[in-house]
Design brief:
Length: about 290
């Protein structure tokens, strides 16, 4: 019985379909089916039901799955034990929200590269909603996002939080000494997408206190929002860390306002029973050390 067939069984069972497992393993679907057939021949039982749309486990498949989890974990433990001498490069699929990617992530990845030899990252920068979906689909191993992810299979570790502020160019900022909610609502506001947590909170905050339509421009790209506000297109509601350099050099000014925005919090989130759990937890531990020292 080959380990690769157990590996294939694990991913079909975990992802719920032969198609998803094939995509994850970079195989064709017929190749995945062939491996499962060989495994079933070796065991003398069927491990997946053939009369259902998704890859539902049979009784024998449910019995096999805990052993498959242990084999996957053992494979990872062997690599971890020889991390200082192995020439194998372990690739971790890392997803990060743009706020983190634009702040400390590059320096942290350089730091991890020094303290954990033989590790590489396949980096995805995306919205929190997309990162959450990718994590649940097992398309990424570790997500640094606006969490927590409310799923039983996901472990969430709080890592950092950021202050949200209103900011604008000096020409706009000088219009009021103290900006109240009506002053802000009268301007074009640039902020997170409407489907995001801060985007929804800002929309609710303004609509509950102001009459008439709101002029809110949103984007999934924080970089684009920053460029727009620096060009004088409106005022922004963004994490202060994103516009910190613009505030220092005078391109933007923080608005003095009696409107309080909620801070945004981030978590390191990962699948609790995934084969990569051990190395992901090691990375997360180093992340805590890095952020404390920063």
């Amino acid at each position: 019985m080959r380990v690769r067939n157990i590996d294939t069984f694990y991913w079909v069972a975990t992802l719920g379909s032969f198609r998803s497992a094939a995509k994850h393993l970079n195989l064709t679907q017929p190749a995945v089916s062939a491996r499962i057939q060989i495994l079933e021949q070796d065991l003398g039982v069927e491990v997946f039901q053939r009369d259902v749309r998704n890859a539902a486990l049979t009784l024998a498949g449910r019995k096999l799955f805990p052993y498959a989890e242990k084999m996957m974990a053992l494979d990872q433990q062997i690599l971890d034990s020889f991390s200082e001498t192995t020439r194998i490069v372990l690739t971790i699929r890392l997803g990060a929200a743009e706020t983190i990617a634009f702040s400390w992530l590059p320096d942290f990845l350089a730091y991890v590269g020094k303290v954990i030899p033989g590790i590489a990252f396949e980096l995805t920068v995306d919205t929190t909603n997309n990162l959450r979906n990718a994590l649940l689909a097992r398309d990424i191993d570790l997500a640094l996002l606006m969490g927590p992810v409310s799923e039983a299979s996901i472990k969430n570790q709080p890592i950092c939080g950021y202050e949200m502020i209103f900011a604008a160019t000096p020409a706009i900022a000088c219009k009021h000494d103290l900006w109240n909610i009506n002053d802000i609502a009268a301007q074009r506001l640039l902020t997170f997408s409407r489907s995001s947590r801060p985007g929804k909170e800002i929309q609710t905050l303004l609509s509950s206190s102001c009459e008439g339509p709101l002029n809110i421009s949103t984007s999934t790209s924080i970089g684009a929002l920053r460029e727009l506000v620096c060009a004088g297109y409106g005022i922004c509601a963004l994490p202060k860390i994103i516009v910190s350099e613009d505030l220092k050099n005078g391109t933007l000014m923080e608005l003095d306002s009696d409107v309080v925005l909620k801070d945004i919090s981030f978590t390191a989130s990962y699948v609790e029973n995934a084969p990569t759990r051990s190395i992901v937890e090691t990375i997360t531990s180093h992340l805590y050390d890095y952020l404390e020292a920063a």
